[in-house]
Structure formats: C-alpha cells, structure tokens
C-alpha cells in the first residue's frame, strides 16, 4: 500500500526521503493559495525563485515579477503575495516569477529530488487528492511553515489531505496521524480554528482579511498545479 507522510517544516526535510515521491508543497498563507489563484486567472506559468534579486532579473525576460517579504510587497515589484490581487487584473497568458518568505523556499528545497511536485491549497484540495490517487507513488506533504517553525494552517491542510487519502494510503508517520485527527475534529469550524493561527493574526495586522478568507475556501477550483522543469502550471491529465 502507498504511504503518506507529513514534514512539518522545511527545517526537518533532511529527516525525510524525498526520492521518487510526490511532494505536495503547502503554504496556505499565502504562497501556494496565491499560485492557484494566479493560474485560475489565466497565468500560464509561475517560476518560484528563492531570492529577490534573481526574481527581479526575470522582468527583462517578460515575466511579471512578484516579490514578498514579511507579508509586504517588496520594493520594486509589480505584485506581492495576495491571491485576491490575481482575481482583479488581466493575467491571461502571462508568466510570473515569484519569491515569498516561506513558500517558494520550500519548493526550491525539494525540486531536484522529488518525482513530482504539486502545489497544495484548500482552494483545490479535491483536485490534488484525485491526481495523487491516480499515481502509484508515495507522498510527502511538506509544510512551508513560518521561518522554519510549525504553523497551524499548513498543518491543518496536511491533516485534511491525509484524511482524504486515508482509505488508499498507509500512515505510519506520527505527524500525519496527529494532523489527520486534528483536522477531523475541527473540520466543522476550520475558519475559526485557523483564525487563531499566529500567521492569520500577522496578516490581519496588514488589513488583508479577504486574502485569509480566500485561502480557507475549500475546492473553489478543480485543477491541479504541478512543477514541470522550473515552472508551475496547470496539469492537464
Ligand atoms: O505573504 C505571506 O503570506 C507570507 C509572509 S509572512 O510569512 O507573513 O512573513 O509568505 P509565505 O511565503 O506565503 O508564507
């Protein structure tokens, strides 16, 4: 039987075997939710980048540059890390280079070893579940966390995904078992529960409650986002 594990932070990644696995990168607030919003708005490719300078250099290649640090749009960038911003503009056929505090770093850390990398978010969780169910691979869910620390929102997403995969996947990983249980006992009040998260409070201080609401919406979209080469795009089966 296939196996699912959860790594609670990129700082713990060295303890896991990534080779030949499907890795689901999750950064609910907000990088991976924002990537799904951008693709849903017609963006054809997103290049995740570790640092601001490399990201800026994509401008001359015709990319829209999106840069965020500590919850704010970085100086000199066209976009920050708001999913809502992608729902408002004209992004059809555009490509984006993106760097964020936690999310794009987590992608960079796994991209050379994994069999495939999926972008995980509540807004497309059922599509991601279906994609995984159709593959014959073990799964590692990697929480981007916050600056190396555990966070509630990525963990709850991990629990939700483990719960959805459960009948077909074995979980002998304690974090997966714990988060499945945490999700199942709080699924009826998810918004309220995640509202306590330190990250939600940080973002509320920036006045971006609409972003938080968006990131916690379940199954708004029915597509999977996959890293292919160095670019994230919608996966067509
Ligand atoms: O913009 C965000 O939501 C965060 C910034 S921070 O963690 O609040 O500083 O970046 P992300 O990479 O999406 O976690």
TrEMBL record:
Protein name in the entry: Probable 2-phosphosulfolactate phosphatase
Pfam families: 2-ph_phosp (PF04029)
Cofactor: Mg(2+)
Family assignment from sequence similarity: Belongs to the ComB family.
SUPFAM superfamilies hit by this protein: ComB-like
Principal EC category: hydrolase
Keyword Magnesium assigned: yes
Enzyme Commission number(s) from the entry: 3.1.3.71
Residue ranges the record marks as coiled coil: none
InterPro entries: ComB-like (IPR005238), ComB-like_sf (IPR036702)
PANTHER family: 2-PHOSPHOSULFOLACTATE PHOSPHATASE-RELATED
């Amino acid at each position: 039987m296939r196996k699912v594990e959860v790594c609670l932070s990129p700082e713990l990644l060295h303890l896991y075997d990534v080779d030949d696995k499907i890795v689901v990168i999750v950064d609910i607030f907000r990088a991976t939710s924002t990537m799904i919003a951008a693709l849903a708005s017609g963006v054809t490719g997103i290049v995740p980048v570790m640092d601001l300078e490399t990201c800026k250099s994509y401008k001359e290649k015709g990319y829209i540059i999106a840069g965020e640090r500590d919850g704010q749009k970085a100086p000199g960038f066209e976009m920050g890390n708001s999913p809502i911003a992608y729902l408002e503009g004209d992004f059809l056929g555009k490509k984006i280079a993106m760097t964020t505090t936690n999310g794009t770093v987590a992608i960079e850390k796994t991209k050379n070893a994994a069999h495939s990398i999926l972008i995980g978010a509540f807004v497309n969780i059922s599509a991601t579940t279906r994609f995984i169910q159709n593959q014959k691979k073990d799964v590692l869910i990697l929480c981007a966390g916050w600056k190396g620390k555990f966070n509630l929102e990525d963990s709850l997403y991990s629990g939700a995904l483990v719960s959805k995969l459960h009948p077909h996947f074995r979980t002998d990983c304690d974090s997966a078992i714990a988060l499945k249980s945490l999700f199942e006992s709080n699924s009826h009040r998810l918004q309220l529960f995640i509202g306590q998260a330190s990250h939600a409070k940080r973002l509320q201080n920036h006045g971006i409650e609409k972003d938080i609401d968006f990131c916690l919406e379940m199954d708004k979209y029915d597509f999977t986002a996959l890293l292919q080469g160095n670019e994230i795009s919608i996966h067509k089966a």
